[in-house]
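Quick one: structure tokens for this chain, please?
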Amino acid sequence: MPITNYQFENRIFFAKENGQISEDDAKTWSEQLKEATETSDLPIIALVDAMDVTAMHRAAQQIFAKSAHFDNLLAVVVATNSIASLQSRTIGFLGRRGCTRIFPSLEEARQDTKQILAQHQAAYK
């Protein structure tokens, strides 16, 4: 399965993407993200490890872009390789403005996720 390791804890919805991402893979991810946004009392972040993605179906890109518009979603933070980086940037342009953030490593993406959550938390104190 190209998208695995779904986890939702501490306002972070995480998933690992591998290989070729199909339309059905994107639909499953989107449905699970939607459920997480609807069950959380506070806005969440989608953290995606796409370091091992080799290709992405065009319909999958459109689904990911539409998902960026979910209510209660602060950002989609993506760690991606150079091959999939262009596709991730395209998704970002098609999605909600400023929602998708792209990094060349999972560690940098995790740090950004923590920073966004900290800033959001401080804004509500």
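The beta strands are 3-9, 12-21, 44-56, 73-80, 100-103.
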